[in-house]
Amino acid sequence: MNTRKLRDIIGTNLMRIVTLSVSFLFFFILIILLYKSTLVLGTHSITDVLFSSIWNPDNDQFGLAAVIIDTILVTGIALFIAIPISLLSAVYIVEYAPLKLRRTIRPFIDVLAGVPSVVYGLCAFLFLAPFVKNVVAPWFGVQSTGLCIFSAAIILSIMVFPIIISLCIESFDAIPISLKEASLSIGATKWETVKKVVFRASAPSIIAAILLGFGRAFGETIAVNMVIGGTIRFPSSVFNPGETLASLIASKYGELMSIPLHESALMLVALILFIVVLLFYFIGFLLLRRAKKRWKY
Amino acid sequence: MNKRTIEEHIFKILMVASVCIVLGSLIVIFGLVIVNGISSLSLEMITQTPILTPPGNPPGGGILNAIVGSLLLALPATGLASLIGIGISLFLQTDFLPPAISNTIRFMLDVLWGIPSIIYGIFCLMIMIYIGMSSSLIVGIIALTMLEIPIITRCMDESIKMVPIGLREASYSLGSTKFETAVRVVRRQAFPGILAGILLGLGRGIGDAASILFTAGFSNRIPMSIFDSTAALPTMIYNLYSTPLGQSKAFAAAFLLLMIVLVVSVLSRLLTRRFKKHIIK
Amino acid sequence: MVSYQIETKNLDVYYHKNHVLKNVDIKIPAKQLTAVIGPSGCGKTTLLKSFNRLLEIQEDIKIKGQILVDGENILDRKASEVPDIRKKMGLLSQKPYPLPMSIRDNIAYGLRIHGTTNKGEIEKTVENCLKEVGLWDEVKGRLHDSASRLSVGQQQRLCLARAIAIQPEVVLCDEPTSALDPLAAQQIEKLLLRLKKDYTVVLVTHTLRQAKRVADHIIFLYFGMVIEQGPADEFFNAPQNPETKAYLSGEIS
C-alpha cells in the first residue's frame, strides 16, 4: 500500500513540475533574449536600430530598417499569393470536388506540410532562382541574379499553402449541411452559398488561418536564407537581394558571435522576431479556440 | 446566360487552377528532388563519410556522417520528447488541474509549436555558451527535444481526449488512483494516436535545420561521443547547396529526407485509421 | 376539381445503394396542407427534399422517375436552372438554421439574390414577412441583431419568414416543430394553418396527432413505399390498407 501511494505522489509531482516548466518555456526564452539584448540597447536607442538602414557592425552601426522592409515585403507578397489560392483550393476540396478526389487530395496537403524547409530552399535555389533570373525579371525589364525578395516570397507562399488550406478545410467541414441546405433552398447557387454562408460562418477560422500563415512566413529562416541573397540595403525592386529578420540571424551568426556587442545586436533581432511571431500565433490560436467552441451548432 | 451562373463558372475555373497550383508545386518539388537525388545516390554515397580532396576536385565520399548524425540527434530527442509528452498530456487529461489552467497550458503549447525553430537554436546556444560547452551532439539533442515537445504533446493530448470518460470512471470505481488510471487505462486506448504524434515529431526533428545549425555544429566525421560536433542531413544540405560540386551530396540528402517524410506521413495515416476502428464508444 | 401542384411518377431514390424510395406515385393538391406521415426512417424527408432537388447535394444519390411541378418534370432541367426551381419552394427544416447574419439580412437574403436591390422594397417585404409569422412586434426594434440571439421558437419563425419572403408557391416543412417546446410548436402550427390558404404546404410529421390537427390531405409512407394517400377525413375515417390501419391504431410506429 505504501509504495503504491509513494509512487503516486512522486509520479504526480514529477508530472506537475515537467508540465509547468515546459509551459513557461517561452517565458524563459523571452527573458534570455531580453537579457542578451540589453547590451546593444545600452548604447543604441531602439529608434536608431529600427529606423536606420545602415548595418555595419564593425562601425558600430546596427540599423535594421532595410531588413524590416524586406521582411514585410517577403511576408506580404507570400501571403498575397497564398491567401486566395489557399482559400479557393479549400473551397473546391470541400464543396465542389467529387468524393474520391477529395480523399486523394487531402494526404497530398499533409505531405506538403511535412517537407523540411531545407528541401524547399534547395529547390528554390537551384530551380526557382534561375527561372526568376532568366524569365520573370527580364519580363519586368529588370536585371536580377534570381536570389532576391521575389524568389523568397514565392517559395514561402508554397510553404504557407498547407497551413491555410488544412485549417480552412477543417472549418468548412464543420458547418452543418442543413445550413447550406437552408441557403440553397432559397434558390441560391452553390457559389453564392459559399460566399454568403460558408465564408461568413467560418470567418474567425479563416482569419486565424491567415494569422498562423503570417506567423509561419515571418519566422521562416532557412528556406528564405537560401534564396534571398543576403544583402542589407534598401531594395529598389522585389528582384533585388535582401535579408529578412529571420534569415539575418542565420547569415550573421558566424561572424557576429565572437564580439559581445555584435552578438547582442543579433539577439535583439531574435527578440523582435520572437515577439512578432508570438503575437501572430497568440491571436491566431485565440481565434481558433473561440471558433471551435462555436462549432457546436 | 445568367450573371450568377457566369460568376460561379469563373470562380470554378479559378478554384481548379488554385488546386492545380498547389498540387503542382508539390509534384515539382518531389520530382526535382527524386530525379536529382536518385542520380546522386550510390552505395558509396550512403556508406562513406566525406573524403576531403584537393580544392578544385569534387569532394569525394558520401554522406554517412549526416545520416548517422541525423539518427543520433533525432532518435534520442524524439524519445525524450515522447516521455515528457506522455507525462504532460496524461497530467493534463486526468483531472489533476482545473480545466481553466489545463486549457491555458494547452494554449501555450500550441503557441510553442509555432515558434520558428531558430529561436530554439539560439536559446540553446546561449545556454551552451554560458555553461562553457561547444556545439555538440548533446546540445543538438536538447534543442531538438525542445522543438518536438509541443508537437508530440499536443498530438498525444488530442488522441487521449478521445478516450471516453466512461472508461476512466470505470477504472476509478474499481479503486485505482488517478495516476494509475492515467497510466494503465488511458494510455492503452489512445496508443495508435500517441504513436502517430511521435512519428510526426520525429519527422519534424529529422528535417529541421535551424535549431541544430548552431548547436550541433558540423563535422565530416561520424560523432564518437556526445560532445562531438556532428553533421545532419538538413545541415549537410544547407552547407553544400551553393557549391556546384557539392550539390550531388545535397540532393542525395534531400532525397533521403523526403523519403523519411513520406514514410512518416503514410505511417501516421495508417495509424490514425486503425485508431478510428478500434475506438470504444 | 382539385388541381395538383406536385406529382411524382415511378420515383425511385437510391442512397448509397439503399433503395430508399420505391416506385413512389403521389399527387399533392395545390393550396392545401398535405401531411406526409409514417414511421421514422421511411423516406419522408427524402421525398420532401426531392421536390426541390435538394437531394442532389449529397454524394451517392440516384434518382429515377419523374417529378412534376405544375406539369413540368423538374428532373429534366439543367443543373444551372435548379436555383430557379428552388425559388418556387421554401424549406423549413427540423432544427431552425438561421443564416449567420442579422435578422433583417436573413429575410433579405433571398430577395437580394434574386435581384431586388431597392432598399425601400426590401424593408417593406421584411416587415410584411415578419408580421405574417407574428415576429414583427417582438423584433422590430432590433432588426440588425444577429439572428442567433433569438430563442429557438423565434428562430424557427424567422426561418419561415425567410422562406416566404421570396414568394414561393410551395412551402416544404420537415418536422418543423420537433425541436420546439409545446408553446412554440403551437405557434408554428397556427401559422401553417394560415399559410395553407396562400401556399401549397407539404408537411412531414411523425406525430399522427399533428397530422390530424392540420392536414387536408395525407400521404402515408412505409419503408419507402406509398401505402395510401387521399383526403384527410377519408384517410382517418376509412383507411383501406392493413398497414394503414395498424399505423393508425398505434400498432406500428
What is the succession of H and E elements of chain B?
Answer: HHEEHHHHHHHHHH
Mean pLDDT of chain B: 84
Question: Can you count the beta strands of chain B?
Answer: 2
- Largest beta sheet of chain B, briefly? 2 strands, antiparallel
Can you describe what's shown?
The complex is a heterotrimer of chains A (297), B (281) and C (253). With 297 residues, chain A is an all-alpha fold. Chain A is built from twelve helices and two strands; from the N terminus they run αααββααααααααα. Chain A has one domain: MetI-like fold (Orthogonal Bundle). Chain A has a two-stranded antiparallel ribbon. In chain A, a hairpin with a 4-residue loop joins strand 1 (55-56) and strand 2 (61-62). Chain A is globular and about 70 Å long. Chain B is mostly helical. In chain B, helix 5 crosses helix 6 (137-161). Chain B is globular. The termini of chain B are far apart. Chain C has a domain at 4-98 and 169-248: 3-Layer(aba) Sandwich (Rossmann fold). Chain C is 36% helix and 26% strand. In chain C, the strands form two sheets. A six-stranded mixed beta sheet of chain C has the order 6-7-8-3-9-10, sandwiched between helices. Chain C is globular. Chains A and B meet through helix 1, helix 2, helix 4, helix 5 and helix 6 of A and helix 1, helix 3, helix 4, helix 5 and helix 6 of B.
